[in-house]
From TrEMBL:
Domain of life the protein comes from: Bacteria
Role, per record: NDH-1 shuttles electrons from NAD(P)H, via FMN and iron-sulfur (Fe-S) centers, to quinones in the respiratory chain. The immediate electron acceptor for the enzyme in this species is believed to be plastoquinone. Couples the redox reaction to proton translocation (for every two electrons transferred, four hydrogen ions are translocated across the cytoplasmic membrane), and thus conserves the redox energy in a proton gradient.
UniProt cross-references to InterPro entries, sorted A to Z: NADH-Q_OxRdtase_suN/2, ND/Mrp_TM, Ndh2_N
EC number from the UniProt entry: 7.1.1.-
Keywords linked to the UniProt accession: Membrane, NAD, NADP, Plastoquinone, Quinone, Thylakoid, Translocase, Transmembrane, Transmembrane helix, Transport
Biological process terms in GO annotation: ATP synthesis coupled electron transport; photosynthesis, light reaction
Locations listed in the record: Cellular thylakoid membrane; Endomembrane system; Membrane
Quaternary structure and interacting proteins, as annotated: NDH-1 can be composed of about 15 different subunits; different subcomplexes with different compositions have been identified which probably have different functions.
CC terms in the record's Gene Ontology section: endomembrane system; plasma membrane-derived thylakoid membrane
A Pfam short name: Proton_antipo_M
Membrane topology: Multi-pass membrane protein
Name listed for the protein in its UniProt record: NAD(P)H-quinone oxidoreductase subunit 2
Organism: Cyanobacterium aponinum (strain PCC 10605)
Family: Belongs to the complex I subunit 2 family.
């Protein structure tokens, strides 16, 4: 009895109650589909949404929990992981609401699609708190394989098959590279797999300057950069975004990216703390390349989904500024921006889904004059795109201000200047779409909009999209102005994290040293 109670205390499975709720929901969806068939698809979709929101509530009740480790230290349920897990769960819940009509319109099984998406969500949530190399890899593969399946879900669509094949080949290569980096860490640490223990051993002086640690750093960053769509590991993004079902793209652009940044923070500040300068340099280069290429190439796109793909690459570059800053404000700005990005990016994709359902196209030129036929869709897409561009007083403006301020405070002046210039560039291609919808005269209306069907929200699956679009548009408009609670939660999650404690102390000392040097230079002048 004592042995079993000891094992139970070490497992501490209560910490993954949210993941348990998602798992139970997944099983109920699969069993319900087997028993009741396709006639229960809509009910199972709403059941999955209820399960995901229940998981978010469970995460809320786990806030400031004293027992944060579980499964013999393989999973850490601290406040930092809670916020990232909440972003992943919320993105899936909203995506499922947006996908009901879309999947039904294709004639494929909705319940199977939801089952795969819940599996990806479970992998992403576990990845956000994984503290052991084996669990990191298993969670990463659970997320990746489910994403490959969702990408190729439209089996009759050649574009979907092509996107899935490209995603699979490049993803398999990135997973192999990431696994090789993990194996190098395993060897360098003397056979350890817990990332906190590996970090402690490496900091003790074993292999600090070794070639193996540098190679492991490069390989693991390559795997992470693939997940967050950072240049030059972005090649899959435009093709996958264009060929995949639009709800899948919405999930990949938010949920998968949030999980990627969560594990990046956890690995970099623990395992690779001895080579902080090196990974700062690498992520600075990745951020500049992502911001420049993502926003410049987006200017030439004619497809809405490809434009949003390159926009996603550019947004990843902005978020990396907070990662390079490595301060309390830097990490907090990552969380705050990803939370805002959840609403404005999913809002944009909700509009793209609606337009494609009614017209069957996603060309930007086909949106000309849309405001005359569908004012709600035009308003929602305009606000979400302007927010992505950082136009005040929308939420995206406050998110970018916070990230740029954190970078400037950390002394990343050149990086912030590049971000400002590329952010201005991004405004052009966002406003181009808004202009296409709003400014065009009736005689300049596209043929697609001229034949636009009457707006009917009482059709199957359309009401959830309408509700999602309204909620996302309101959140995008107001959450920046009412952002103080979100900022407080982000700050608290960072300052209370034991994982970030050493990194924040070192960053604070570096900033103080830089300021002292600046004062001395001013005094000498």
């Amino acid at each position: 009895m004592d042995f079993s109670s000891q094992i139970a205390s070490q497992l501490n499975a209560v910490t993954i109650l949210p993941e348990g709720i998602v798992t139970v929901t997944l099983l109920l969806v699969l069993i319900g589909d087997l028993i009741f068939g396709r006639k229960s698809a809509n009910a199972l979709a709403y059941l999955s949404v209820i399960g995901l929101f229940s998981a978010v509530v469970a995460l809320f009740y786990g806030w400031n929990n004293t027992e944060i480790t579980s499964f013999l230290g393989a999973f850490t349920a601290d406040n930092l992981s809670i916020v990232f897990r909440a972003i992943v769960a919320l993105s899936t819940a909203i995506t499922i609401l947006m996908s009901i009509a879309y999947i039904e319109n294709t004639g494929t099984s909705l319940a199977e699609f939801i089952g795969i998406m819940l599996t990806a969500t479970l992998g992403g949530m576990l990845l956000c708190g994984a503290s052991e190399l084996v669990m990191v890899f298993v969670s990463l593969e659970m997320l990746s394989i489910s994403s490959y399946l969702m990408t190729g879900y439209m089996k009759r669509d050649p574009r979907s098959n092509e996107a899935a094949l490209k995603y699979l080949l490049i993803g398999a290569a990135s997973s192999a590279i990431f696994l090789y980096g993990s194996s190098l860490l395993y060897g360098l640490s003397g056979g350890l797999t817990n990332i906190n223990e590996i970090g402690a051993v490496l900091q003790a002086g074993e292999g600090l300057e070794s070639l193996g640690l540098a190679i492991a750093l490069v390989f693991m960053i390559a795997g992470i950069a693939f997940k967050i769509s950072a240049v030059p590991f972005h090649q899959w993004t435009p093709d996958v975004y264009e060929g995949s079902p639009t709800p899948v793209v919405a999930f990949l652009s938010v949920g998968s990216k949030a999980a990627g940044f969560a594990i990046a923070i956890r690995l970099l500040v623990t395992v690779f703390e001895p080579v902080t300068q090196q990974w700062h340099f690498i992520f600075t280069a990745l951020a500049i390349l992502s911001m420049v290429l993502g926003n410049v190439v987006a200017l030439a796109q004619t497809s809405m989904k490809r434009m949003l793909a390159y926009s996603s690459i550019g947004q990843a570059g902005f978020v990396m500024i907070g990662l390079v800053a490595s301060t309390t404000a830097g990490y907090s700005s990552i969380i705050f921006y990803l939370f805002i990005y959840l609403f404005m990016n999913l809002g944009a994709f909700a509009c793209v889904i609606l337009f494609s359902l009614r017209t069957g196209t996603d060309k930007i030129s086909d949106y000309a004059g849309l405001y005359q036929k569908d004012p709600l869709l035009t308003l929602g897409l305009s606000l979400c795109l302007l927010s992505l561009g950082g136009i005040p007083p929308l939420a995206g403006f406050f998110g970018k201000i916070y990230i740029f301020w954190a970078g400037w405070q950390a002394g990343l002046y050149s990086l912030v200047l590049v971000a400002l210039v590329t952010s201005v560039i991004s405004i052009y291609y966002y406003i181009r779409v808004v202009k296409m919808m709003v400014v065009k005269e009736p005689h300049e209306m596209s043929e697609v909009v001229k034949n636009y069907p009457s707006v009917r929200w009482n059709m199957s699956g359309m009401r959830p999209i309408q509700i999602s679009l309204i909620v996302l548009t309101i959140a995008t408009s107001l959450i920046g102005i009412l952002s103080n609670p979100v900022v407080n939660v982000a700050n608290q999650s960072v300052t209370s994290s034991r994982v970030l404690e050493a990194s924040l102390t070192q960053a604070s000392a570096n900033i103080d040293s830089t300021m002292d040097n600046q004062r001395k230079n001013i005094a000498l002048r």
